[in-house]
Amino acid sequence: MAPKSLFYSLFSTISVALASSIPQTDYDVIVVGGGPAGLSVLSSLGRMRRKTVMFDSGEYRNGVTREMHDVLGFDGTPPAQFRGLARQQISKYNSTSVIDIKIDSITPVEDAAANSSYFRAVDANGTQYTSRKVVLGTGLVDVIPDVPGLREAWGKGIWWCPWCDGYEHRDEPLGILGGLPDVVGSVMETHTLYSDIIAFTNGTYTPANEVALAAKYPNWKQQLEAWNVGIDNRSIASIERLQDGDDHRDDTGRQYDIFRVHFTDGSSVVRNTFITNYPTAQRSTLPEELSLVMVDNKIDTTDYTGMRTSLSGVYAVGDCNSDGSTNVPHAMFSGKRAGVYVHVEMSREESNAAISKRDFDRRALEKQTERMVGNEMEDLWKRVLENHHRRS
Q1: CATH topology agreement for domains 25-140+278-351 and 149-274
Q2: Which of 13, 61, 3, 5 is closest to 36 using CA atoms?
Q3: Predicted TM-score (pTM) of this structure
């Protein structure tokens, strides 16, 4: 009888272990990145009472810009003010928390004993945290050329998003900074705001780049002529600020920056504002370390529903993902979308685990009952035999 009892005890233990498919972690979700995308995730999950922590390294792509635009209800709000108000509003959700530190690494962990997996994050101080899911809102950095004066004016009269900053400089003399292949795209985006446009191609007007531009816009020369766009291919030596638009505004919100572009030949041109076409890079090394599939140096979320990445349990929101838009409304939308999908995915896991555990418990109870009934029947049969022998 002992081996049989041992078997049932082991079965019961294994049943409970297999049913416990929800890992015991510090948090349901770890969000990396404290910009609009990460804040939107935190808010969404907080409203569903998910235990969520957001890590904020204090690095933001729009951190240097004067103010946000095209953000309904917050038009003209400085980014820092927006983030502060968002944090204040989210703080009422007791299941959320914010830690102002950089996350250095995230590692997937397989827990075979519990039939589950989770993530372990380590911050810059070496402190470890675990969660069931991870949302990356780590953003991009603009790869700005080493031109004196350019970085100092970044986000303050020199910008990359016409929806974010173009209207405040409407009808002013515009410059386009970047390679020749991107000139027509910038004109298409801005010609309703500007009529005086010069593209400063900085030596990139070459036969090879003409071919590259013609591949995208076969009639590119006619298009530039139609919009009266000039091209200046001289090499840029520096960009000098002559006037700060932050101090020179009108009642309609127009900002009057003035810059002088100095060329290596000693000549110069004055422009009020610039749209730029410079490459971007992932701010964080986490996507690479997690071996996430990338598209054009952005985390691929194209073929994965709800901002999911190629790694199960990891989501990507905001500028760092591949859905092709880089602005605050997009960041908030993608964060909200991820928050919904993360919550629902965890709910499905919890439901499946509850059903599984209940099923295992039922089976264990059946086996236990079978064993108990079996033992009682065996004892009864023994007593019947003993009585029979006595009578014989």
Answers
A1: yes
A2: 61
A3: 0.85
